[in-house]
TrEMBL record:
It comes from the Eukaryota. It is found in: Mitochondrion. This is Glycerol-3-phosphate dehydrogenase. The keyword Transport does not apply. PANTHER family: GLYCEROL-3-PHOSPHATE DEHYDROGENASE, GLYCEROL-3-PHOSPHATE DEHYDROGENASE, MITOCHONDRIAL. GO terms for cellular component: mitochondrion. It comes from Lipomyces tetrasporus. It catalyses: a quinone + sn-glycerol 3-phosphate = dihydroxyacetone phosphate + a quinol. Pfam families: DAO, DAO_C. Keywords: Calcium, FAD, Flavoprotein, Metal-binding, Mitochondrion, Oxidoreductase, Repeat, Transit peptide.
């Protein structure tokens, strides 16, 4: 059936066409501009990254303040702000406040990005679904969410170009009436992004669509609409934010748990008591003019330390993701299905040389390391099967890793309808002065932090040196980053190409320091960099760098959040565990008992990442090759 006949042959087609034309009346005046010109702002950012490699090898960077130095400051100094929680929002608050000249401390009971901030979809996006809701429901608040998120997306990619990048995403079209519908929506998305738009959306022919996704089901495929968003390495981004805050003078401590809130004689919160979960310092009393609760899904636990009868504001939702081999996705383009069998969205995204697929959206309970259920994993695999060609079988054995992230949706405690969920973030102040920030999403972490610090300054009577400047603060690794830096690394140090590209894209200009900490191979080529797993570009120097420069204290810190091996392949992470523990034991002076504890703790963590549960893996089994990984 022709495109025209398909549109006019059904009531739905005619109705959608009329709506699309209405939107197109606005869009037609801008479509030509958007489709024939690049974003001026984006070109500027790209020019910085594409500059020629005409510089000497950078000198080694200085070590950050040691953990012992940070602990001493925590117990002896009084702070303007004490931030609880080392996820994206907490780290963002620490950077914002420290860059304004405030005296800041941040404590995290586990590790930076140990929760939701490392278990995201890895997208830096405005939210095309919110835009669709704004259009159909004439909802201005949804439109504002998209506009704000798109502005933050541009800032995100500017301050951390080594950790984030533009990603074209296709929406396959199987019915002709969908073409003007999706085209109008993506053009509006471009228009709202304005001068910071990455590239213009466009229609891709059927042939080009199958060329990019050869596994896609070809029957009735008309083509695809392609639009642009961003992707990033979430936990490394989180760590970079925290380390940049430390550069600005903040005291940042992971594995430091708040056990109680302290209050003055009038009942106002004036600090916290913390316990060093790494075993160095025991309990410490910390004084602060204001305390910020930025603990994501665990926000209610801290609120109830303040007020035991406080009603919950977090409505936790589970989002399960699976990692599949690279052949399930184009290496340079993602795919989103906006209408699955039950109305949820499913996606395939290229990430770290693999395919990331998901996600579910189900009510859940808050847990430290949530384990994805087999039902949720199988739902994702079944949805993928609907999209791939009939001669391709999506197998459970193809799942290399799987995890569940808890999205902390929030209810406004001041709202009359307590069932209604806040679409964006929520900042609330208790009667005793505990400031809580919750909700939001990764893309808008910086804006959330700015709003929270602004509120803190007002509520706690603080005196900042100036306004928020985080839109222009480049994160650790970004200052000297260049796209072609990997060539310089190869020529200077004699490392393999895949390792050089990996280090450049995950450490930026700090890649030189990582290589310096890597062992010699004893071979003519490559000369440096011993791989932790033969199938992946992660090397021994990354473990040493994580300990010396990034406050990694456990093997899980390294395998899951400094390098991402646990998120990419749980069996490969298991295979690498002996090397990681041996390197960390030398760096941190671990005794035998601590090494055995690290082994058991890491195995338990890997169960939550898809490692076969109900089976214990001993170090002897791993080192003897009984658990050999096939990738």
């Amino acid at each position: 059936m022709s495109f025209r006949r398909a549109l006019f042959s059904s009531t739905r087609g005619r109705r959608l066409l009329l709506r699309s034309v209405a939107a197109g009346g606005i869009l037609s005046t801008t479509a030509f501009f958007l489709s024939t010109t690049d974003s001026f702002g984006w070109i500027h950012h790209q020019a910085e990254q594409d500059a020629p490699l005409n510089y000497p090898v950078p000198a080694p960077v200085a070590l950050p303040p040691s953990r012992e130095e940070q602990i001493k400051k925590l117990g002896t100094e009084k702070f303007d702000l004490l931030i609880i929680g080392g996820g994206a929002t907490g780290a963002g608050c620490a950077l914002d406040a420290a860059s304004r000249g405030l005296k800041v401390a941040l404590v995290e009971r586990d590790d930076f990005a140990c929760g939701t901030s490392s278990r995201s979809t890895k997208l830096v996006h405005g939210g095309v679904r919110y835009l669709e809701k704004a259009f159909w429901n004439l909802d201005y608040e949804q439109y504002k969410l998209v506009k704000e998120a798109l502005a933050e997306r541009a800032t995100f990619l500017k301050i951390a170009p080594h950790l984030s990048f533009p990603l074209p995403i296709m929406v396959p079209v199987y019915k002709w009436w969908q073409v003007p519908y999706y085209w109008a929506g993506t053009k509006m998305y471009d228009l709202i992004a304005g001068k910071e738009n990455m590239e213009s959306s466009y229609f891709m022919s059927r042939g080009k669509t199958l060329e990019n996704f050869p596994m896609l089901k070809p029957e009735n495929l008309k083509g695809a609409i392609v639009y642009y968003d961003g992707s990033h390495n979430d936990s490394r981004m989180n760590t970079a934010i925290a380390l940049t805050a430390a550069q600005k003078g903040a005291v940042i401590l992971n594995h430091m748990e708040v056990t109680e809130l302290s209050k003055d004689a009038s009942g106002r919160v004036n600090g916290v008591v913390v316990r060093d979960n790494d075993g160095y310092a025991g309990k410490i009393q910390v004084e602060a003019k204001g305390v910020i609760n930025a603990t994501g899904p665990f926000a209610d636990k801290i609120r109830q330390l303040d007020t035991p009868v406080a009603a919950d504001i977090v409505a936790p939702s589970s989002g399960v993701h699976v990692v599949l081999p690279d052949y399930y996705c184009s290496p340079n383009m993602g795919l989103i299905d906006p209408a699955t069998s039950d109305g949820r969205v499913v996606f395939f995204l290229p990430w770290q040389g693999h395919t990331l697929a998901g996600t579910t959206d189900s009510p859940t309970t808050v847990a430290k390391d949530p384990i994805p259920s087999e039902d949720e994993i199988n739902w994702i695999l079944n949805e993928i099967q609907h999209y791939v060609a009939d001669d391709i079988t999506v197998r459970r054995e193809d799942v290399l890793a799987a995890w569940s992230g808890i999205r902390p949706l929030v209810r406004d405690p001041r709202a009359k309808n307590t069932e209604s969920l806040v679409r964006n973030h929520l900042i609330t102040l208790s009667d005793s002065g505990l400031l809580t920030v919750a909700g939001g999403k990764w893309t808008t972490y910086r804006e959330m932090a700015e709003d929270t610090v602004n509120t803190s300054i007002k509520e706690f009577g603080l005196q900042p040196a100036g306004p928020c400047g985080t839109k222009n603060i480049k994160l650790v690794g970004a200052e000297g980053y260049r796209k072609l830096m990997f060539i310089h690394l190869i020529q200077t140090f004699g490392i393999e190409t895949d390792i050089a590209k990996h280090l450049t894209d995950n450490y930026g200009d700090r890649a030189y320091d990582v290589v310096r900490l890597s062992s010699a191979t004893g071979e003519r080529w490559p000369t440096r960099g011993i791989k932790l797993s033969p199938a992946y570009p992660f090397i021994d120097g990354e473990v040493r760098y994580a300990v010396q420069h990034e406050y990694a204290r456990t093997a899980v810190d390294v395998l899951s959040r400094r390098i991402r091996l646990a998120f990419l392949n749980s069996k490969a992470a298991l295979e690498s565990l002996p090397k990681v523990i041996d390197i960390m034991a030398k760096e941190l002076k671990w005794d035998k008992a601590r090494q055995e504890k690290e082994w058991d703790d890491t195995i338990n963590f890997l169960y939550s990442m898809g490692l076969e549960r109900g089976k214990y893996f001993s170090r002897a089994d791993v080192e003897s090759g009984k658990t050999k990984v096939w990738v």
